[in-house]
Write a structure and sequence with these properties.
Chain lengths: 235, 257
């Protein structure tokens, strides 16, 4: 190997070391919290216009940013001040991005403790995806678990059950919620509907058991009166 | 005449193959693989949607790259090298030459999108629940969009230099996706003259959103046959008009040997 070639290789090595070294130092200077907080997110309306024909792909990119942003929040690196802006951007770019509404509603409830905000996000999702059972179910689930408002939860579960992509789960929860709300007649009807519509044998067994149980309770209440309390007698 | 045009088209296609344009298909495959393997853990329940979005958007991006890089240079290169004089000295009309070049690049686009489409479908078949035959409609509309943009670049390449043709074509692509907003903006103007002016601009610019059904198919919608038909009529009509204009401009150009 001649001296000139050796020189070029050495120069390339030095330049490579300079490049990697400087980048490593620059990386250590920019700490995660600062870099996240310095992000600038344009408004959803602007994004819709500026993304040209790539709205869904830009929504996906923002979705990744949102997940990273939330991850940084979970690790304590930043707060969630850009939460609304990001979710607005994602859902304006792709109004049918169901996962975004769903996840955002959970974050709104669990991290902001804001039931109304969570509810709003889901309602916005339902407005753009009226036939999506998952979003209706999520509203019902929030009423059921967090608010213990069983009649309202049952209404949402029933709506979810009527969606084209509904599964047995929505109908089952509707029946349970009605029962929990003390509305045995409606609950019985819902279990019967589920029994007729499901093809799942376990679900059929569950529906049969529940129908028997509720029928027995209704019969007892009719026989002994609505004030009856105590263990249910065998009929 | 048809034979001359087809010979020109095939030679243009071969030229693009020699230029290793099909390396872009490899890159597309890599993008699809990356979106599946690397991005999947980050998608939180949206893997199929994101894979499809990335795949369909990448087809447009790579197609645009081909149109801009190859199309803008296609005519200019032969004019500058002087080879165009040799071609035109044979019984080949200038309009036939342009049409041949245009069809040749379209042949490249069809082959590229075909290969990308196969790769895309294969990747989706591997991700359960993501595949839908409706995607074929979206890919077809993407092809129509690229054909129209190809006509735009052919038109500009007859009037201006290659870099300017690429920039103007890119500008047309941007404006084409904003044309609906231009029309809406016009409707907000005070005077009827301004409203009419914006309406004229709207019809002059290509409305590329007509060909953008990517979002709809990703969310499980099918594309109506009537939409496909009307989009085809619009795309072919617009591209045809541009080629006629390009032919008229090219007829008047002085070419050096």
């Amino acid at each position: 190997m001649d001296a000139a070639r050796m020189g070029r290789i050495a120069l390339a090595g030095i330049l490579l070391a300079m490049m990697i070294g400087s980048l490593t130092i620059l990386d250590t200077r920019a700490t995660a919290p600062e870099s996240q907080e310095r992000l600038y997110f344009p408004s959803g309306r602007f994004l819709v216009e500026s993304s040209l024909g790539f709205r869904e792909a830009v929504a996906d990119y923002l979705w990744f940013r949102f997940i990273q942003y939330y991850g940084a929040f979970a690790k304590g690196f930043n707060d969630l001040r850009y939460f609304d802006l990001l979710i607005d951007g994602i859902t304006r770019l792709d109004p049918r991005f169901v996962e975004a509404y769903h996840f955002a509603s959970l974050v709104a409830w669990s991290d902001f403790g804001d039931f109304a905000k969570s509810h709003d996000v889901l309602k916005r999702g339902i407005l753009h995806n009226p036939g999506n059972a998952r979003l209706h179910f999520a509203v019902g689930f929030m009423y059921y678990v967090f608010e213990q408002d069983y009649p309202r939860a049952a209404l949402w579960f029933e709506q979810a059950g009527e969606c084209p992509d509904a599964t047995d789960r929505e109908r089952r929860f509707a029946a349970f919620a009605r029962q929990r709300a003390g509305d045995d007649t409606v609950s019985l009807e819902l279990w019967r509907t589920l029994l007729e519509s499901t093809s799942n044998p376990q679900m059929k067994d569950l529906a049969v058991t529940m129908i028997e149980k509720i029928t027995r309770r209704i019969t007892i209440q009719r026989t002994y009166g609505p004030e009856f309390i105590g263990p249910i007698p065998e009929l | 005449m048809m034979r001359t045009i087809s010979t020109l088209a095939v030679s243009t296609f071969r030229e693009t193959v020699r230029d290793r344009i099909f390396y872009l298909v490899g890159m597309f495959g890599f993008v699809m693989l990356a979106s599946t393997a690397v991005l999947s853990p980050l998608t939180i329940g949206a893997q199929g949607k994101i894979m499809t979005d990335v795949g369909l958007a990448a087809m447009v991006v790579f197609g645009m790259l081909v149109v801009l890089l190859v199309g803008s240079n296609m005519v200019r290169k032969e004019v500058e090298k002087g080879t165009i004089v040799t071609i035109l000295s044979k019984p080949v009309g200038r309009r036939q030459y342009l049409l041949g070049k245009f069809l040749g690049l379209n042949l490249t686009l069809v082959s590229m999108l075909g290969l990308m489409g196969v790769l895309f479908m294969l990747m989706l078949l591997m991700a359960p629940g993501s595949f839908s035959p409706a995607y074929l409609g979206a890919i077809y509309l993407t092809l129509l969009e690229l054909v129209l943009i190809n006509a735009v670049v052919v038109f500009f390449s007859t009037c201006v230099s290659a870099p300017l043709a690429a920039i103007f074509t890119l500008g047309t692509f941007v404006a084409g996706h904003l044309s609906q907003s231009i029309r809406d903006f016009g409707a907000l103007q005070g005077t009827p003259f301004q409203q009419k002016l914006f309406n004229v601009i709207y019809y002059l610019l290509p409305n590329l959103e007509v060909f953008n059904m990517r979002g709809a198919v990703v969310h499980g919608e099918t594309i109506a046959a009537s939409h496909l038909l009307l989009a085809t009529v619009y795309g072919v009509g617009y591209a045809g008009l541009l080629l006629i204009l390009a032919g008229a401009v090219f007829q008047r150009r002085a070419l050096r040997g």
